[in-house]
Amino acid sequence: MNTPVSGPSTTDRDAQRSTARAEGLAALANRLAGTLSVPGDPDWDAARQAWSLSADQHPAAVVHPVDVADVVHAVSAARELGLRIAPQSTGHNAGPLAAQGLGDTLLVRTSALDEISIDPARRVARIGGGTTWESVAAAAGPHGLMALAGSSHDVGVVGYTLGGGVSWFARSHGLAANHVLAIELVTPDGVQRRVDADTDPDLFWALRGSGGGGLGIVTALECRLFPITEVFAGMMLWPAERAHEVFTAWRDLTTTVPTTASTACRLFHFPDMPELPPFLAGRSVVVVDGVVQGTPEEGAALVAPLRALEPEMDTFGPTPVSELMHLHMDPPGPTPGTGDGILLDELPDAAIAAAIGGLGVRGASRLMFVELRHVGGALRPDEGASVADGPTGVLAGLDAEYVCFSSGMPFPDGPAPVRAALDVLFAGLAPWRGGLDYLNFAETGRDPERFWGADAPRLRVVRERVDPDGVMRPAHAIG
Questions:
Q1: For a designed S-S bond to 209, which of 192, 214, 394, 434 qualifies (C-beta 3.0 to 4.6 A apart)?
Q2: Which residue ranges does the record annotate as region Disordered (predicted)?
Q3: What pairs with residue 190 in β-bridges?
């Protein structure tokens, strides 16, 4: 009788794959001008850590490329080794990516791709894929120019912009994504490409508003700059006991202001921490901040209804645009916050009450703040197309009048209680919730239709053409 010959056991096959992967990653490390880190390396925890300290990322390996050739090597090696690829610059919103496990994924951290060149005559910036907004402001400012940056100085340009990009100037200029002129990337087949409205209009459309990470690794982009150097900006502050009064007055103001004004209203529960200034530490306060494009007289007239409420602090006045990335009091460095955001169609008195009540009382709430931000204007999809000076991307705008965002600290017992508190807050606002969500403010997974609505099928077609094997692993799936 012949004895059947058995093949390698599952354990043996796993060991062979593990050995092959280790050898392949070692070969990749030898080809890189940058660095590669794997579990067990002394720098492993630092290499895998995103800006969001709540995002516990455990990829198969991390590559820090220093040039486009490194990115090409990383993509080619990942394909050969059967790994997926996740690009990341700073990782401000890394939670949805980290939640995917990443054990079969090569994380490509692009922070060293930080070149900036300014063409003042064309009012165009070419910005490396790992650059942060603070660096762009420093490069553009001496030319009397500014970009449509967000409210945080250390947010990555690419993730923010290709996710949409809501700046202080968005109500008059629309999404930052729709002022991108060209995108340089390495597609999942390992090919370096430069795409614009002429060379590949479908891919160019899909990149602007999808976040970009599902279609390749963006190594640079070109965007418009604007000749704005000074605005009327600042903040006002009141004790939390006046929350309903201030939120209502702010809401009333948003119904009359021109698109050259952008404001937000927030209710905070600040912890008692020595790092905070005395006027904030251990207090609950209401803050209205904003930017007005106009003369000091025009700005003062616009905020007069809020000044009539006699804030205990008022910093509104002529402000260099270089200071706007610190106006919103976003964290100055990495934090462990857990948050999320939704869009609102309207803000009646009942919605204001739901937002304030949803934050909860100091000492019992797991949330640190609730924010309502006025959008509308040129952020509306139909208006966004009119200010883009060219075809818009998959996200033409935000079909809403307000954004609600909230966040809390996930300690001592992890993010689950914070998530539960966010669910309660957003459930209370459900009657006024918009039909879609905004990618950059979504810190949990969503169906593609929640971000792109009727355009989700077209986006999926582009993704299937560019990445038929599903190599790319974006933070939010695009189909």
A1: 394
A2: 1-20
A3: none
